[in-house]
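User: Last request for today: this protein with NDP, please.
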Amino acid sequence: MALSTRPAAELAPFEWDYVPAPEARDIVSIAPRNQLYIGGRFVEPHSKHYFKTVNPATEEVLAEVAEADEVDVDRAVTAATEAFRSWSRLEPAKRGRYIFRISRLLQERARELAVLETLDGGKPIKESRDVDVPLAAAHFFYYAGWADKLEWAFPNRTPRPLGVAGQVIPWNFPLLMLAWKIAPALAAGNTVVLKPAETTPLTALLFAEICEQAGLPPGVVNLVTGAGKTGSLVVAHPDVRKVAFTGSTEVGKLIQRALAGTGKRLTLELGGKAANIVFEDAPIDQAVEGIVNGIYFNQGHVCCAGSRLLVQESIQEPLLEKLKLRLGTLRVGDPLDKNTDVGAINSRQQLEKIQGLVASGIAEGAEIYQPPCRLPERGYWFPPTLFTGVAQSHRIAREEIFGPVLSVLTFRTPDEAVEKANNTPYGLSAGVWTDKGSRILWMAERMRAGVVWANTYNRFDPTSPFGGYKESGFGREGGLHGLLPYVELS
Ligand code: NDP
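Assistant: Here's the final one, the structure of the complex with NDP:
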């Protein structure tokens, strides 16, 4: 670390200069042109179309990726339907063994996956290395264990797999969302056709290689890359028996409408506008770290991000002072640098959405704070931002920004905190910071949120179910609950 030569007393935290510590990227080799993965083979798309995926931190084109059309999606679903016949009848312990093998290979190739995830999506390497990849491996490991214990998972019932699962995932946690979807589906004896997001397809394609390495029978996992149109084809295919979607509430509603009356099973994990609530008796320094982790982790591209801070009025001033100071120490920049806290915004489109909502916050009268920070010249960047003086009616208090932008509101009593926390069409997550266990339980009982974290935030574990209420969707992923959408019980 190189320090400024000025006396320490004069230094604001953002004036520290860090020596670059970039992770080497030569561990990954990216094919210039990538095909679809269908029936255990990489195949050219019938569409003959390819789209480009870029590194959002530099705007460098990383590769061309095949765009699957209706014929391609049909080929993938047919391959999955054929594979289902033998995969669903395979001795469950053997099925588990394949999934364990995938988990081990994810661990073995962890560095490669982490670097690729960071290159393609813009998230800091320390997050892809320490969160995304280990958690993805842990999901496979956890569900592998269930493969031969399904009858214990559902006592006195006979669980049977459904068939082909059509799965569509977003760009914020590409490999992790893939794991959340594929691991329980395979453990329960289903086969899958998965569509990764258009801006982040590369780790899914590396995952296809891992399936090959694990010797997974052809057709059990199929990957069709493409844009929203490809996703809608997967969802609409008549031979898909179960649809799992994570993404925007808008597209979730379209899917729900399209599936009405088809008899297909559906789980939706959609947006959020979570309240992170800090009471006056909370340990403030710990809460500040939790607030930062809640909203600036993964540039705020997190469906359960603590994007509304509800702070008890009596501690508003000292808490905001500490929070602003802490914002000044966040290092924004090269996502491959091991010191980076806030990486690149995933796409130009997402950057424009964030800029638009931030402009609305200013226009509606909220007060903006951004620490001084130098943003790289190329790529898509947005500084850590917080708004004070936010009213519940402001768009920045109601809409999912999906960026590093925190809206600060205040409350006086626990009842008011609950009322404000629940005053949203969403219901995915919430956080409570207080010294009193009884208050945590009191709050958790009253908040309409699928997950309530207490004195922590953004903690994930494969054994724990995750999912929302209201416009945040329905169904649960993770834990025993995550198996239920993939089985028929008799
Ligand atoms: P989308 O909901 O459009 O994307 C999620 C996935 O669905 C992607 O794979 C996408 O493909 C695919 N998709 C798009 N349209 C359809 C369709 N009609 N039928 C089936 N699949 C479809 O999210 P965006 O990427 O457009 O992001 C927009 C906003 O959504 C963000 O700003 C954020 O607020 C929110 N969002 C929330 C997420 C969450 O986890 N809750 C995750 C991502 C976004 P493609 O990538 O090619 O468009």
